[in-house]
Design goal:
heterodimer; A: 322 residues; alpha/beta; Rossmann fold; five-stranded parallel β-sheet; 7 strands; B: 345 residues; seven-stranded mixed β-sheet; 18% strand
């Protein structure tokens, strides 16, 4: 699949925005500015960008606890996201959701999800809704290697198959579910192998390679749009930070992350490829870098100066009987 | 003469009329048609107790059989609800909520709040409750208090065919997730049900019997046992008021407190287990807000804190009934305050 220049620029912009968003959140969290639990997507950008490049706002995505990347790739407002992480009233969810519950249903973003394996059943339902509407739209569930071991995921693969739904399951196998290796926790040869057992089309993908993800996702999305049923992408990728911010990752090999960053970084690989082929020139990418840094800087400044939710917001948006 | 329907037919009619009115209403559940993929007849069951019988023939693929895979299909109904459909999904027995609870209490219940008011989840989960079928510990519970505990869910527990139809239509049109509890012993119960579409608002308890001596607060099948007890007590000159809660979330606190303030004596009747239950919740509500009006301690009539037993004699002992309720009414009537006892001596 050949990408137009504008598509390449968009892809780079999405990946770079995710990276800078996460790097900055890492710093702000360490400085005590962001409360709660935060799980960073840095290192995995090619997957969200490669999949979501095929989606419009009419398509649905359900994410995971490591959801910032999926939100940005789906077009969710970065200012609203940052303010939400800071727990401010200007946040996408009014400061009532936080990092693990960023959502924007108008853009088809069904939410990050604090429950591992929470998303696949919901996506199965969204896929049913678009199938009934007959509009050619699709629904995508991102799950980690941890979520790939949940019964909800297995059940959803089966349901999507027997109802022939336009659903795509994207396993982001970053090697670790919390502190446990996926080499140990997944009994099958791979998640692609498992999915084939459920009757799905499934492929294993180098998740650090934007172009590989883009191509595999393109085939799966097209199949779904044409009524060909569900697929699974088994993406192998890498998490740069811990399970949560504050995790020292002592369970990982010495220099494992350092080596990955140096040799396999998805953004560096994208940069190298597009500049070597001459599809893009360095100055074009540098201009994006500059814009992204400015965007993140402004988003953080706005979030920090925004008010917290009003006390009365505690009792809104829910039926309260007491 | 007014038309009568069974509780079961009233539910079927509510589903039928709402599906005819609104294309976005779909049904999902295990064997709600029955016969999927088999050589025999389709719509063979209409659900395990036949409540949805005939709807598949009328609405075709809007009545969707599911595999026995509750996490996936309850979750799918919830996801579909956030994406434009109004699914009514059947979770056969409420005892099975254990295998799909996350989708209900962490997903559906919380979307509206944690997404800052921007999500609506118009899903109805219909499920059977109740002991009395000799169905033993995993098919006989009444777990509405667990759902009532969770903010964001609405809980409906009807006791008559009329209420079942009106409350189910209200539930389907509501934009929040609603758990609709159907007591399996009530399915054959006949009652007047208008042909036309009507709704009953949530949070409005019904005073099904007037009486000035004791207020009996109850729900579901126990409404009928309570009325029986009230009639027996009337022969002894004690007049009981019986309140049918109809919905446990929202809860009609105003009616409860008004009634209790007038009678000063309360019996709470709940078929479920007693700890952290609807009965304890209502007792606490009254103790906090109407303590001054009480002439006797609040009395609870509930199941014991045990699983539901299988043997018929044990199950009969397990369930509250009219006799146990009448005995509780006698106790609150005979209760003497310390001052009254002292002045007599």
């Amino acid at each position: 699949m050949k990408l137009a220049k504008s598509e390449l620029l968009d892809a780079y912009s999405v990946m770079k925005t995710i990276r800078e968003f996460e790097e900055r959140v890492h710093v702000e969290f360490a400085a005590g500015e962001i409360p709660g639990f935060v799980h960073l997507y840095a290192g995995e950008e090619a997957c969200a960008a490669g999949v979501c490049a095929h989606l419009s706002h009419e398509d649905y995505v359900a994410s995971t606890h490591r959801g910032h990347g999926h939100c940005i790739a789906k077009g969710v407002d970065v200012h609203g996201m940052m303010a939400e992480l800071f727990g401010r009233s200007t946040g996408l969810c009014g400061g009532k959701g936080g990092s693990m519950h960023v959502a924007d249903l108008e853009l088809g973003m069904m939410g990050a999800n604090g429950i591992v394996g929470g998303g696949p059943p919901l996506v199965t339902g969204a896929a049913l809704a678009v199938k009934r509407a007959g509009n050619g739209n699709v629904a995508v569930a991102f799950v980690g290697d941890g979520g790939s071991n949940q019964g909800t995921t297995f059940e959803s693969l089966n349901l999507a198959k027997i109802w022939n739904l336009p659903a795509i399951f994207v396993v982001e196998d970053n090697g670790y579910a919390e502190a446990t290796s996926s080499k140990w926790s997944i009994g099958a040869e791979s998640n692609a192998e498992r999915a084939r057992g459920f009757g799905l089309h499934a492929v294993r993908v180098d998740g650090d390679d934007f172009f590989a993800v883009y191509e595999a996702a393109g085939e799966a999305v097209q199949r779904a749009r044409e009524g060909g049923g569900p697929s699974l992408l088994d993406c192998q990728l890498n998490r740069y930070y811990g399970h949560f911010e504050g995790d020292a990752q002592t369970y990982r090999g010495l220099d494992e992350v350092k080596k990955h960053r140096a040799d396999r970084d998805c953004i560096a690989r994208f940069f190298k490829r597009v500049t070597e082929t001459g599809e893009l020139v360095e100055s074009e990418l540098a201009a994006i870098d500059h814009k992204v840094l400015e965007l993140i800087e402004n988003a953080v400044a706005d979030a920090k100066s925004a008010p917290k939710p009003k006390a009365e917001e505690l009792l809104t948006d829910v039926y309260v009987s007491y | 003469m007014a038309r009568t329907l069974s509780f079961q037919q009233a539910i079927n009619e509510a589903l039928d009329q709402e599906m005819a009115r609104d294309e976005s209403v779909i049904l999902m559940g295990e064997d709600i048609a029955g016969g999927q993929g088999a050589e025999g007849e389709m719509d063979a069951w209409g659900g395990v107790l036949g409540v949805t019988k005939g709807l598949h023939a009328k609405y075709g693929d809007r009545v969707m059989d599911t595999p026995i895979s509750e996490s996936a299909f309850i979750g799918a109904a919830i996801g579909a609800a956030t994406s434009g459909l109004r699914p009514v999904v059947e979770l056969m027995f409420n005892d099975f909520l254990g295998v799909c609870f996350d989708q209900i209490f962490n997903q559906a219940a919380k979307f509206r709040y944690m997404f800052g008011g921007k999500a609506e989840t118009p899903v109805v989960i219909r499920t059977m409750i109740g002991a009395g079928f000799r169905a033993a510990a995993q098919h006989s519970q009444s777990l509405y208090s667990i759902f009532t505990h969770i903010p964001g869910l609405k809980c409906v527990v009807p006791s008559t065919p009329y209420d079942a139809k009106g409350l189910l239509i209200e539930a389907i049109r509501d934009n929040d997730p609603v758990i609709f509890f159907e007591h399996k012993k009530l399915y054959p119960l006949e009652g007047e049900v208008p042909q036309e579409l009507y709704t009953i608002p949530f949070g409005e308890a019904e005073i099904v019997r007037d009486g000035e001596d004791v207020t009996i607060i109850t729900l579901a099948e126990m409404v009928h046992e309570s009325v029986k007890a009230a009639e027996a007590m009337a022969e002894d000159g004690v007049e009981c008021e019986v309140i049918d809660l109809r919905t446990t979330s929202p809860l009609d606190q105003e009616t409860l407190l008004d009634c209790v303030s007038a009678t000063g004596r309360v019996v709470v009747v709940d078929e479920a287990n007693p700890r952290c239950s609807l009965a304890t919740d209502i007792s606490a509500l009254i103790a906090q807000n109407a303590f001054d009006a009480l002439k006797a301690p609040i009395k609870m009539v509930t199941a014991p804190h045990t699983p539901v037993p299988f043997a018929d004699n044990l199950e009969d002992l397990y369930k509250p009934n009219a006799e146990k309720i009448a005995s509780a009414v006698r106790e609150v009537m005979e209760y003497q305050t310390w001052e009254a006892t002292a002045s007599k001596n």
